[in-house]
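Please describe the entry underneath.
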Amino acid sequence: MEYGFESADGEAGALGAAPVSQNNSEAVETGCEGRPGQKTRRGALVERVREGPFNMGTITRNGFVDIWGTRSAEKTYTENSAKIIGGFARQTTNGSLGARTTAEKMPRLSDFLPQHEQAWLDAMEQYIPDSLAATPAG
């Protein structure tokens, strides 16, 4: 099964369809085509992401999803992502907001996927226009 996410190196172009292994050890961009000539919903999301800098979190090599934010749109995305898994967003000492599970831990990729794939994609799709609207033109 394939899912879209940002790689740990922070490259916006790395958000795309990527194989998720048992230990989630690598995030490898494989492109955004589902079948030849047919763009997938994830592929459309990749195209939107290339419009600007976005913070949708990081998936660590051991499968934790680090979602946090300091700007308004990022905080809303963080809150929405945490709610998807029944968790909450917690204010940190540096002023950012981080997603946590009900056990007050960083969520794992398996907390989101596959059962909450659609809701997480919806949260990402809402975050992109919110972030673009908050970004000064330049």
Observations:
- The beta strands are 2-5, 16-19, 33-35, 38-39, 58-59, 65-66, 68-69, 88-91, 97-100.
